[in-house]
Amino acid sequence: MSFFVRPAGEGDRYVFDGATFTVKAAGPDTEGRVAVMEQSGPPGLTVAPHTHDGEDEMFYVLEGELRGFCGDERWSASAGAFLLLPRDVEHGFEVVGDRPARALTIVGPARFDALVRDQGRPLP
To answer: What per-residue confidence (pLDDT) applies to 1?
Structure first.
């Protein structure tokens, strides 16, 4: 693993499931420990219920508002909020309000970044 800086606006970009992801640190960058992506979604974007097998997912909300569920719990989060969605627990969310939402998406161990890369549409 080597030191690097990925400046604002840089990183591989993909459209996946209606959102845009900018990969800041992929699994290969961190020996598979963690991946970090900047995720942005338009108002009304809905991420269907799903589960990350063996992978925790975290969000740090930068802009906008998200609302969703994790297991039996309901949550709402706006700029400055941090969420932990534990592995193997069904969750989903939506972008609420009339503004896009933007969040850092952190997963560990790194798996979801490979799904975004493999199934997403690359952007220039």
So the answer is: 83
The residues near 36 (Cβ < 8 Å, ≥ 6 apart) are: 23, 24, 25, 104, 105, 106
Could you tell me if 72 and 89 lie in one domain?
A: yes
- The tokens describing 93, both together, are 């969310």
What is the total count of domains within the chain? 2
Q: Determine, yes or no, domain membership for 21.
A: yes
Whose structure tokens read 């991946």?
A: 35
- Cα distance between residue 105 and residue 97, in whole Å: 20
Pair (58, 77) in one structural domain: yes
User: What is the three-class DSSP state of 14?
Assistant: strand
Q: Which two tokens stand for residue 83?
A: 């969420």
Q: Is 114 part of any domain? A: no
Nearest Cα neighbor of 67 from 34, 88, 36, 43 is 43
The pLDDT of residue 104 is above 90: yes
Residue with structure tokens 């932990």? 84
